[in-house]
Write a structure and sequence with these properties.
Elements lengths: L4 H15 L9 E4 L10 H16 L5 E6 L6 E7 L5 H18 L6 E4 L3 E6 L12 E5 L7 H21 L4 E8 L2 E9 L5 H12 L2 H4 L6 E5 L2 E6 L7
Antiparallel strand pairs: 1-4, 2-3, 3-5, 4-5, 6-9, 7-8, 8-10, 9-10
Main location: secreted
Family: Belongs to the cysteine-rich repeat secretory protein family.
Organism: Tripterygium wilfordii
């Protein structure tokens, strides 16, 4: 996109306001790109600041935003995604935190990706929209084991597979649900970034569900997160009602 100078000034002001609303939360995970660094106070940094302001403004109302600002070789692409159950205010606060932390932890990098419980943010000097990003991946799991791992693994896989199907077919590309497990329940969610097609969303989720046996076998909770999709399951409710 090519915003007018007045709109760019508005985005820059929005980014400045966003930085005033951070709370110092630590990210779950982050990664900095290996591409060349940008020059401080140069055109790429200006475009990046404007894009952060744009995402801060545009994403909370729907939970997702993406866009690009500038022209080659200083064009920057970015997206922000909030968890499907996050309120607009929580989404906005999380994106502000991600914008701040991304710049602090990857200060001169032309690209970065960062994740929190409620949101993720990614930017790059390469156009990544509509492409499955499975190069960036992190895994978290509960260290406690269940008493019947075979039945638990089957129940978890069935739940996540159903959620992946639902997420790929909904406009928000997000689904949450639960399944009975004896006297308890397994709770789960599946989500994709909305720049993906329905087909690629399901493929991305199916691929990371396949990671569960090797990373989280019999564990009471786990999550697998990539740049384009994520899954999570727990034995307690973790989404907002």
């Amino acid at each position: 996109m090519s915003p007018s100078p007045s709109l760019l000034s508005f985005y820059l002001l929005s980014f400045a306001l966003a930085l005033q609303s951070v709370f110092g939360l630590d990210p779950l995970f982050y990664t900095c790109s290996k591409s060349n660094n940008f020059t401080a106070n140069g055109p790429y940094e200006s475009n990046l600041n404007n894009l952060m302001g744009y995402l801060y403004l545009k994403s909370p109302s729907t939970g997702f935003g993406n866009g690009s600002i500038g022209q080659e070789p200083n064009q920057v692409y970015g997206l922000a995604l909030c968890r499907g159950d996050a309120s607009a205010s929580d989404c906005k606060s999380c994106i502000a935190q991600a914008s701040y932390d991304g710049r602090q932890r990857c200060p001169d990098n032309r690209g970065a990706a960062i994740w929190y419980d409620y949101c993720q943010l990614k930017y790059s000097d390469q156009d990544f929209f509509g492409q499955i990003d499975d190069e960036i991946k992190y895994i978290l799991y509960n260290t406690q084991n269940v008493s019947d791992p075979l039945a638990f693994n089957q129940g978890t896989r069935t739940l996540l597979t159903n959620l992946a199907e639902e997420a790929s077919l909904t406009p928000k590309m997000y689904s949450e649900g639960e399944v009975e497990f004896g006297l308890e329940k397994i709770y789960g969610l599946a989500q994709c970034t909305r720049d993906l097609s329905s087909y690629d969303c399901k493929k991305c989720l199916t691929d990371i569900i396949g990671e569960i046996p090797s990373c989280c076998d019999g564990k009471k909770g786990g999550r697998v997160v990539t740049g384009s999709c994520n899954i999570r399951y727990e034995m307690y409710p973790f989404v907002n009602a």
